[in-house]
Amino acid sequence: MNDTYKTIHAPAGGLVKEKGSRFIAKAYPVESVEEVKEILASLRKEYHDARHHCYAYRLGPGDAVYRVNDDGEPANSAGKPILGQIQSHGLTNILIVVIRYFGGILLGMGGLINAYRSAAKESLDHAGIIEKTFNCRISVVFPYPAMNDVMRVIRDSKAEILRQEFAAACNLCVQVRSGASDGLLSQLNRIDLVEAQLDTL
């Protein structure tokens, strides 16, 4: 399983001017639809006087989760060209919003497509593209005597401990790259009295 992906390191921006209209592009690394919604709400507030807030985002592996929005522009003239730039750069877990201030001159379908595509590309040209891994979280419950065995398996798998609680029973939440999750689960569950499962929270 290929559990690596490309995204951007940090928010980046770009600007395209066309016949008086300004197209302000904002690119963000994102992890969830909720995060997308928060960013969109914040931009609508910050650029409340803009005519259009068009966007595209892509989350997770493949094309499982993506969306485009033309926000009042002619169908497929804004969101789709923005998504095209995300796809052509091979990126995911990313949101690009292009905010348009109308300059009084209609650009036509071809002009709009080119402007939105160019603005999205401009933001990506200013962004640092990085490679990351898709990760899974695993919760582990075990008695104290199993501690050394559990910790050895976790260390060998290069998993990251996110949360730990040592009481009558020990509880851990660890994060590991998706491609290694099945192996880690199998090794942990082979240890006596250890219960390990994918954490869906």
Number of domains: 2
Helical proportion, percent range: 25-40%
- Shape-level CATH architecture of the largest domain: 2-Layer Sandwich
What general outline do the C-alpha atoms trace?
elongated
Q: Superfamily at the CATH H level of the largest domain?
A: Impact, N-terminal domain
CATH class bucket of the largest domain: Alpha Beta
The run of helices and strands is: EEEHEEHEHEEHEEHE
Which sheet architecture does the biggest sheet show? 5 strands, antiparallel
Q: Uncertain segments of ≥5 residues (pLDDT<50)?
A: none
Please state how the strands of the largest beta sheet are arranged side by side.
2-3-6-4-5
CATH topology of the largest domain: Ribosomal Protein S5, domain 2
Mean pLDDT: 93
Radius of gyration: 22 Å
User: In total, how many beta strands?
Assistant: 11
Structural class: alpha+beta
Q: So how many helices?
A: 5
Portion in strands: 35-45%
| Distance separating the two termini | 22 Å
Molecular structure report:
The chain starts with a strand and ends with a strand. It has helices at residues 33-46, 79-88, 108-125, 147-156, 178-189, and strands at residues 4-8, 12-18, 21-29, 52-59, 65-69, 94-101, 129-133, 135-143, 160-166, 169-177, 195-198. The strands form 3 sheets. A 5-stranded antiparallel sheet has the order 2-3-6-4-5, sandwiched between helices. Strands 9-10-8-11 form a 4-stranded antiparallel sheet. A two-stranded antiparallel ribbon has the order 1-7. The longest helix is centred in the middle third of the chain and has 18 residues, at 108-125. The chain has 2 domains: 4-132, Ribosomal Protein S5, domain 2; 134-198, 2-Layer Sandwich (Alpha-Beta Plaits), CATH 3.30.70. The protein contains 5 helices and 11 strands. The protein is elongated, with a radius of gyration of 22 Å. With 201 residues, it is of the alpha+beta class.
